[in-house]
Amino acid sequence: MSEEKRNAAANEALAWQKLAKHVEAIEKTHLRDLLKDANRDKALVAEFDGVVLDYSRQRVTAETMDLLYDLAEETGVARRVKSMAAGEHINVTEDRAVMHLALRAAEDEKYVVDGTNVVEDVHKVLKQIEKFSSDVRSGKWVGVTGKPIKNVVAIGIGGSYLGAEFVSEALSTDPDAHKAAEGRSIRFLANVDPIAVKRALEGLDAAETMAIVLSKTFTTAETMLNARTVLNWLTTELNDQNAAKLHMVACSAFPDRVEKFGIDPVNTFAFWDWVGGRYSVTSSVGLLPLALQYGFDIVQQFLAGARSIDRHFQTAPPRANLPYLLGLLGVWNSSFLKYPARALACYNQSLHKFAPHIQQVDMESNGKRVDVAGKPLEFEAGEINFGEPGTNGQHSFFQLFHQGRVVPVDFIGFIESQHPIRGDGEEVSNHDELMSNFFAQPDALAEGQNAAELRAEGTDEAVVEHKLMTGNRPSNVLLLEKLNAYSTGQLLALYEHRTAVQGFVWGINSFDQFGVELGKKLGKKVRSQLAKSRADANAEIRDFNPSTVNLLKRYLAKKQ
Predict the structure, then answer these.
(1) Confidence class for position 1, pLDDT limits 50, 70, 90
(2) How far is the first Cα of the chain from the last one, in angstroms, to the nearest whole number?
(3) For the chain, counts of helices (H) and of strands (E)
(4) How far, in Å, CA of 41 to CA of 46, rounded?
(5) Residues recognised as catalytic
(6) What is the pLDDT of residue 5?
């Protein structure tokens, strides 16, 4: 049995047991009082490379943090980080290394998987992406009609979609990236719903469009159906059965399957089985569409930001290590204070796809019921992640945050706006208005408003209880200089590693995802039944429970 499988359960650690008892002391405190301690507030701030993390609004004391650091040591977080970076097969259920660190490594760095320095392979693909994207963007590469390629449709789902779309949206309003993308468009096709196909292709000139099929295995049902649909659109619109040669490329770990599909294997951009789908945005899966839209220089800045946090994660001591802090605070909130959810509130509209990406990174990684040895957990692991940009979220679900369930929040904001505006006669700029909310909301959650304060404001006694806010609701505040390619890379790596820290503490495998398999298997069974019933209206619907049989009959009653 591997070293990973010999570790004791997390809740057997002495620090875990001390933290469980420590909850009693924390329940006697209130953030309103804790925040009055200037020394405590100053101590609960960490900073690295322009990223400031203020966690003074967490329900923690110095003793809490000491115990969390002890827990990290007892559960071997630092050792497991080293094992990951050393290329050990820490994904024990699939017997694979976990090496997304290598995807953004500098060319002179070394990350070894199974005796091979994979950084060399990574940079071969990066150079391939650089040349190809340059050829397409310069007009050297043209479609079958001789027109240059201006539009990209990226076809993928899950990890082959969410990360790339998050980064693309984040870059879309950065002045440098926006200028680099002038005259170009990028669209993402993930859902197998035919409406998604219509939305992705509507208004595009096939002669100026390239499709990228993003699939590690090249077998994902939704992606391959969408790929065949887009291929049919291209060949029909262009009246050329060989259109794929100049209008379709692929990112996959299986070039033989790509060739069988009909895409020239020369136009296949590799990635490897040590890259998990949800960690693949810094592989060809994310970088190729991003380079085609924004140029390779922007991509390099994005990778540099991720690399900065990667190095910090591996070298900074736990007490100054941003991913450690975020991960340990998440464990504290979910496993000890019993808050099952965590919200992301990004005060930049261009980060509107950040929460959906982190939903997958975190929930697919840590939504587990057993530890690495296959033993059922005696505690809940994983968090429910969701979010919306500020201030939209404030007018959506913050009511619940302030007066309903306690949901810890990560507030992410920026000192500079990508597009500063201040109208004539306005007291503050638009960005200052946004950031007024950014700074106010964490304090409102932490401090609340009691009955005495409401009465002092002249609140009608009949509604005092309705307006009362208990406060004592935790949050993190992350403040960065400006949203650009570099800081987008930093945010990505920060939250990837936060997830790993939590998984290491809980003793689970954060790098498999068997929970998604059963639905796929049952989906194939339903698909087979639908094919039979469409071919023969009298075909028996069998091997389903009565409820599903009835639903299928209703669905099939309408001919298509």
Answers:
(1) very low
(2) 54
(3) 24, 13
(4) 11
(5) 364, 395, 520
(6) 46
Average pLDDT of the chain? 96
- Distance between CA atoms of 263 and 556, rounded to whole angstroms? 35
Q: How far apart are CA 382 and CA 133, in angstroms?
A: 38
Neighbouring CB atoms inside 10 A of 255's CB total 17
Angle at 205 between CA 199 and CA 206, to 5 degrees: 90
State the Cα–Cα distance between residues 388 and 343, nearest whole angstrom: 8
Lookup: tokens for 166: 């998050």
CA distance 29 to 48: 30
Alpha-carbon distance of 208 to 205, in angstroms, equals: 6
Q: What is the pLDDT of residue 558?
A: 84
Neighbours of 114 (CB within 10 A): 10
Helix (H) / strand (E) element for 151: namely strand 151-155
What letters, b where the CB count within 10 A reaches 16 and e where it falls short, cover 320-354? ebbbbbbbbbbbbbbbbbebebbbbbbbbebbbbb
Q: Find the mean pLDDT for residues 187-206.
A: 97
132: phi then psi, degrees, rounded to nearest 5: -65, -45
pLDDT above 60 for 3: no
pLDDT, tens digit, 9 for 90 and up, residues 551-560: 999 999 987 6
Identity at 166, one-letter amino acid code: F
pLDDT in tens, 325-338: 999 999 999 999 99
**395 φ, ψ to 5°?**
-95, 15
DSSP for 219-260 reads --HHHHHHHHHHHHHHHHHHT-TTTHHHHEEEEES-HHHHHH
Contacts for 381 with CB less than 8 Å, ≥ 6 apart: 334, 335, 366, 367, 368, 369, 502, 503, 506, 508
pLDDT mean over 359-370: 97
Three-state secondary-structure class, residue 21: helix
Give the mean pLDDT of 407-417. Answer: 98
- Give 211's strand partners: 153, 248
Helices (DSSP H) in 482-516: which residue ranges?
Answer: 485-506
